[in-house]
Specification:
5-stranded mixed sheet, mainly alpha
Amino acid sequence: TTLEHFCSSSHPVGLTNAVGNRVDIQFAGGARGANEGECESHRPVATTVRASFSLVMDTSPIAETALRAVESSLVHDCGVADLPYLVRADCARLFQRRGTSYDSDGSRGERAKLMPKVEDDCWYSLTVVLLNLLGMKGEGESSASASIPTGNKSKKPLSAWETLLQSDFHSIFSQGEGQLLFCDEFDDLEDLSVDSAVHKNDPIGCGSGSRDGHDGMLSSLQSVAKLEMTGSSPESNDDMPIHRYSYKQVIFDSLHLLHEDSRLVSRSRGSSWTRRLGTLLLHISEQMGPCMIDFEDHYRRVCGGYSRCLSNACNAYSMLSEEKQRLSKFAICPCIMTCLDDILQQVGITSGDFNAEDAVYGMSVYKDLVESTGLNGVCSYSWMVMRLFSILFDKNSLMSKQYNFLKNTEAMSDDEDPGSAQCYRDRTAILAMLDEGIYHSIQLQDELPVGVSLPLLEAIRRCRLDPPQVDSTGDCWPPAAFDLVGRNDLAEFLSQSQLESSHGSLANNADNASCEDPDNDGLVALEDYSSMVFPDDNRVREAARLLRSSRALFLRVPRPVELSDHDYERSKQEKLLLLCRRSISLSLGRGMLTLGTHNVLSAEQLLIPNIVLAGRVPPANGTLALDMTSCPANFRVWPEFHNGVAAGLRLPHNHANGAEGKDRRTITRTWIKFNKPVTAAQDSSSSGNNNSGQAPTPSYAHGGFLMALGLRGYLSALTTTDLTDYLTQGTITTTAGIFLGMAANKRGSCDPSVSKMLCLHVPSLLPPSFIPMDLASTVQAAAVAGIGLLYQGSSHRLMTEFLLNEIGRQPMKDQNSNDREGFALVCGLALGIVNLEKGTSTVSGLEDLRIEERLHRYISGRTDGGSEFHGRKEGFDGSGSGSNQGEMDRNSRIYEVNSLNRDITAPGATLALGLMYIKSHNVSIASSLQLPETHFSLDYIRPDLLALRVVSRSLILWNDIEPTSEWIDFQIPSIVKNSLHLMKRAAARAMAMSDVEQIDDDQTNAERDDEVKKEITDFDPQAVRQANAFIIAGACFSLGLKYAGSANRVAASAIIERALWFLELRDNKDTVTLTQRPDNSTLITCLCTAAISLAMVMAGTGDLDSFRLFRALRWKCDDGTLYGTHMAFGAAIGLLFLGGGKCTLGSRPEDVAMLIAAFYPHFPILSSDNQYHLQALRHLYVLAVHERILEAVDVDSNEKVCIPIELSLANSQEPVQASTPFLVANDSEFVELRSKSDRYYPIVINATDWNTRGNLMTLFVKQKAGHLSYLQDPNGLRSLSMQTGSADRESFLKSINLFSNDAMLKSFAKYFCFSSFDDDESFERFCSDIAHECMTEEKSEILPMYLKIIRLIESKGPKRISIENIWDAKLLRTYTDTRERFVEKSAALLNLVNRKSTALLCERIDDSF
């Protein structure tokens, strides 16, 4: 049942349930009870019909667009507010009436047969309404009304030709290629207007007297009739009369603007838009007579008809009647092409040479109308083209407010010269294109004509070759603007900055080499990983060889003739033990070397390499295993822990904690538990072995692996249940790894759950009623260190008070008394980290703790009324809150009463004071750390504490540190300098008095001291030597902390000078040298400290001079070289190549605190030694690591490339020349980066924020066509410009594939340059030339334009060349002639279309007419 049936049988009574354009219509009666034969008692049944109402012409885009244009113009310029809605309603009603003229099976009904068949019913309906509104009536119709066509009363017989034109065959044929035939061949356009309802005898296309039995008036026409009768608008408040032709002019002008807009986008809209609009407007112009002769001439030119002579039209102007008025507000018919041509002709012309008449004709009036109205977005292309042309070529419009679309003027114009205004215009036009919805240059070529799009495309190309400066902070072009100009490399660079992605992180750049690395230590893959960082030598391979511990050691032991086999085997074992001692200490350095170089997979287990304790004995290279019976039981515990940490540190860093990044999704709780090792007991139970007496094999390496996960930011994925399981069933290393890993993962967060876990393992924080727990000293030290990390910078009162008390705590149990020094040091470091940089500010609630006073007492041992050298304090209680234990808990080995053992408390208290007042320049606090000035006071201070005082004092007076040898000498007190000078003078006098050759090389320092004491009896020479060595070492360590990761050559030279001096003291045996030489342990400690300091300064640089020094230091491997010495030298090599040369260290306060904790200048003696420093803290350097490598990636191939760059300094006029990849120092003062390569597009990046950024982003570059990368062609001898001679098909295509990645260019060369089906050699030669030109000049997007130009050049005769093609040629010639006036000479040479092709096109068109 149709809606028409309900309307005829009943009437609507209500509308309900309206949603969008759908509504329920309620009718009062229905079909039931409505027949005549039924009783009257049968009442009609109410019926509800769901219907949709829409006035949108969805089936006809041209009708809907034209209707919107008319509505928009009437709203702005007509006095009748409801006229636009009445026009749309009339069109919809007429379209509905024509739609209901068809039967249910789709065939034409009787009423439809009386109407002419048209191509577009919507367009036909709109045409009928508009013609009636414009006052054009059919024959026999009155001028006062316009009836909707009804039935046909007198039908004239049609001829055979007219019957063919109204047939279905013609309607289908005219929609295809046939429309071109009819459009070009008809001499009179009036015969083509059947589809447009513009007949000569039937203007509305329905027959002059057609009626359908349902008469009705057009609502819009009735409203206009009332308006003309009253003379004013019923909606207006005043009585101002309205001109009867005002609305007609508005309608006509809106259709004309739409017609001109369709000329710009004829390719997308099709020629039917221009044909229909032009035919309708031409008919209207003809009907209005000579007053519209300019419009008639314009439409005939555009539509292809024959135009009248303009002079004849002027002569007939006097024939105008009252009914034939001009239906336009324009004085002369405006043309969009003429307007654009006039804008181009103005470029470079002074105001005195400007022709005002030409401006009025083509540009001024038309542009003003488009700018003011825009027809509600209907003429969007006209608006867009006028806007862009005005920005590019019209100075007045560019500086006006409405065309100043540049969002960041200051950022755009910083690097511009005052004379480069066109560059400013081009960049402004690019932003305007984005506002208009243009995101790719192909949109301009597909939509706009050739002559219009070429100037815009050249502006895009100029910006591609000279883009604005890129700023990672976002104060520059958006990424879409760089995509538009074809610089997707800069767009990708900005996208990673705005999205905070990790394109430049080690995660994306790492290689997954687990299947290629037989040792599973990542050193094999590291060579390829760092090959571009150090491409000139094999320093990375050598560093990997020195730090490898997963292969058998080369064991060469010479055998004397008298040595028996048993003794020889024992000597080999002794030598192998020394080598294995060095091998097990290398894991710390290997972790630094392979930091973040592995890209883990979710289904892949991270294998921990084995520490091989065996040797290869030449010449047969037989394997000799180490005899473990002579080694202590805990020989491999902590080395395995370091090995696990080194393996876990290969994982990429999780930069966004809590973010759902790629690595965050990969390393989950499931993956961590998947990597949990299987113990021997579990393995036997799973295999069915019932040997329950076998003890499980502990995995010490897994504890280090868990700590590494925390340092990289992944351990927080574990739940509380998982952590409890690890703590209850794991080893000591597992517990320490969990504590430090979770604290590092939650550093500075004061997380309650982690805090409870840590406090539970510190007896001093437990309540008195709590059952005491037997905890190892290493576990307690790890828990305290974790508390310091967790509460970093918080100044938490409870933790501050607890840590302050723990530094001077009395020894409690016997089993925990061996590591008191290490525990007190950890408490001091934790106290300094919790109150980091809080010394200068008064923290509320901590004043009563008197932190500075108590720390000074810990350092000096001075009591309230005593001297510095009597460490007594009456009433001092050094115990913590939970230390009130019984007599059973007292220590039976150490009895200190109430004295302060400053040998235990001073190291931690000294560093805590320095961290609290770091960079504060508090002279009062620094004076409390002053070095002794007398021999008497020097004898009462342990020498190594002098080094800590120098370090802490340097932290406070941070800016006073200078990277010179003079500053190091300045730290030595005068008493030490003078005493050392006396000792050297006495030694020199002794050498002069005796023969040098008779000096016994084995003479000890004690014997020489006896000789020196003959003249020097008032001080201890050994104390002076030790003090001098430790003070120099402390000064070197201070330089390393301040200039960490800076690659400061001056600081490195000063440290190298002191390291060579220490090395000379170790190896030389002359008298003067031996006079200055301290004991061996002091010398080795200072030498290790100097090596670590130098490595901190040159971290990640791979400096060859430093590398040679470290390799010479580690060469010595004898009984006097301890485990800690090997660890220090290995760590120095690892720091030098940190992260494979892609990372460096930071120098922020939190970074300095981590470096002090990790490289504390006291190294273990044995592999199990934790007495003075917890070995697990050696890995906290990871928290101070920053990835500062600047890498360049080809945005098209996604491969890393090497490009030369130039870095400008803030305080220097000479830039730094470098090449990517380039390690940027953490304190760099670079302000700008520029690429200096002709193989890649230029880039300019603002680098002012690099010093504050933790990790740098990847630099994306775009390679030019015709060039190869520097890795493929280092010397540039294989570029396309070096190719000479003619190329055949295969070599030409090979060159295209080699030098270009553009798919369009490759397809063009394959199918156009060498086509087998085309025998036209000239066409193939032309295609080859333009392909070569487009490839060498990187303009493949211009290939379709070249094809259009060659098609126009080959066209013959005026019938094959349309008026639009002529306008394209004219605009091209105008733009080519005026281009040199507004662009620089260098930019004028970079033309998309060469002048030869443009001249040839204009010449061919001129010859055609």
